[in-house]
Amino acid sequence: MFGSGLLQGLAVTAKNFVGSFHDPKRMVTTEYPEQKTKLPEAYRNFPFLVAETAEDPMGTLRCVACQICEKECPPQCIYIEKSKDKKPDATGKMQIYPTVFDIDTSVCMSCQICVEVCPFDAIEMDQVFEIATADRFNGLMLRKEQLTKPNSYFHEIHPNDAREIDARLAADRKAAEEKARAAAAAKAAAPPKPSAPPP
Amino acid sequence: MTPTTDSFLERAPLLLRDWISGFFPAALRGVINDLIAILTILAVFGTLFAFLTLAERKILGRIQNRPGPNRTGPFGLLQPFADGIKMLTKEDIVPRAADQLLHFLAPVALVAFSLLTFAVIPYGRHLVPVDLDAGVLYFFAASASTELAVFMAGWASHNKYSLLAAMRALAQLISYELPLLLSIVPVVLAAGSLSPSGIVAAQGAWTLDVLPHWYVFTPWGFAGFVIFLVSALAESNRSPFDLPEAESELVAGHLTEYSGFKYALFFMAEYFGMCALSSLGVTLFLGGWQAPCAFLEFIPSYAWFGAKLLGLLLGFIWIRATLPRLRMDQLMRFAWKFLVPLSLANLGVAALWRLGAGWSEPLQLVRWAMAIAILATAFFLLGRKLSSGFGPRVYRYAPS
Asked: Which of B319, B322, B386 should be substituted to probe chain A, the one whose Cβ sees the most A Cβ atoms within 10 Å?
C-alpha cells in the first residue's frame, strides 16, 4: 500500500526509542571518562620498565643498563646512564643498573624494537594513552621513576607475555642456581689446582 | 458550560497581567498588556526553543541507541545554554562579496516574521494575543514571508550553495503552500470562520462527554490533518523536506555564509516556524485548547494546548529521525501530483460533509461511508499513479 513504508519506518524508530530505555544491550556507548573499555592485549603505545616488586620498584629493576635498547632505538628517544656500583639483579647476579633512564615520548614511535632486543625482558610496552600534558618538553619526557612499573602491572595488561617471561626467568634462575651449586660442589671435591707450573 | 471553565487557574495568567499593568496609569494599560503578551510569547517560546533543541538531540540519540548530550548539567539539561554561549562568542564573519545590508537583515527578518505568526494563536480560553477575524489568513501571510528572508539570505551571501538553496526554498514554498492552504480550507468551511478562536470554539463539544468534536476525528479532518502535517514539514524546512539546507549536497544551504549569532537566529527561526505551524495545526484540527473529555476540563485550557503542541513537536522529531531526505524532483512530484489533487478531493468531501449535516441518524452512516470511500479511492489511485514506474527497486548485481 502507498505510504505503508513510512509507517513501517516509524515503527522501527519507535521500537529503537523504547528499546534503548529497557534493553541495555542496545546502548553500546561507553561513556569514556567514567567507563573504560578493556584494551586488547596486543594494544601498545609507549615502553615502560619492569620491576620485580611493587614495594621496592627502584631496587628490583630488571634493567641492567646494557644500553642495547638505547643503541637500537630508531628515533633515539632513550637515554641511559650506567651506575658505578653493582646490585644483584633478577637472577641474583651482581649487575650494574641505570642511574638515569629517560624516554622522550614525543619522539618515541611505539615500534617495540626496544622490547624485542632486550635480553633481560626489562622493557615492555605500556597501554597508558592518557598522556596529554600542558608542557610538551618535560611533560612528555618520562624519567626512570615514571617509567618503572611492577611486574604485577605487566601481568594485568599483557597476561600471556608476562606468564611466558616469568616462566623463562624462573627457569633461568633455577639453572643459574644449579650451576652455582654444581660449581660449588666441584670446587669442594677437587683440590685447588696449583698455580701455573714454574718455568 | 461548567463553572470550572472560569476557574482561578484558568484566569491566573490574566490576573497576573492585570496585577502588573495595575502599576501603570490607566491610559497606558492597553499598551502594557500588549507588551506583557509579547514578552510572554518571547519568553515561553524562547525557552521552548532552547529545550526543544535538547529534546530533539536526546530523542534522536535514543532512537539511534546512544545517550545523546549528557555532559552539561544533570541529564545535559544545561546544554542549550552552553550552545547559546558558544554561539554568542563565535566570530561573526561576513563575506567580502556579500551584500552587507541584506546579509544582516535576512536573519533579523526571518525571526521577526516567524514571531509575527504567534500573535493570532489562541493559547487558552482567555489567552488570545490578537483576536483577528481573519487570523488564519494573517498567519499564512506572515509565515510565507519567512521564505522571503530565506531567499534574502541565499542571495546576499554571494555563494553558489546559498543561492541554490534559496531557489530550492522558494520552489518548495510555492509547491507546498498550495496543499497547506487547501488542507485548511475545509476547516474554514466547517467552522464558518477565519478566526482561530472561532475555529477552536466550533470544536468545543463532546458526544457522550468523551468523544471530542475535533476536526481530526472526521474523515476530511483526518485527511486534512495529514496533508497539513506533510506540508507543514515542508514549510518549516524540516527533514525529510530539508532540501534548502541539505548538507550532503549544498554544504549548509542558505546558512553556509552565516556564523555566530546570526546562525543561531536562523536556527531559532526554524524552530519558531515549526512551533507556530504546530500551534496552528493544534488550533485547526486538534481542538486547540479544548480538553479531550468533558470531565477533564478542570485542567486549565492552556495546559491542554501545551500538551497537544508538545505532542505534535515530538511527532516532528520522530519523523526527522525516521525518514531520509527527498530528492528535489521527488519533492515536486509529491506536492503537485499527490498532495494538491488529494487536498482538492478532500475539499469536495468536506463540502459533501457539510451538505449532510442535517441528515437523519441512519443517513449519518452513509455520510461517513461516502466520505471515507471517496478519500480512500483518491488516496489509492493517486498513490498508484505517483509511484508507477518508480519501484520497487531491483538490484541486478547485489546478492538477494
From this structure: B322
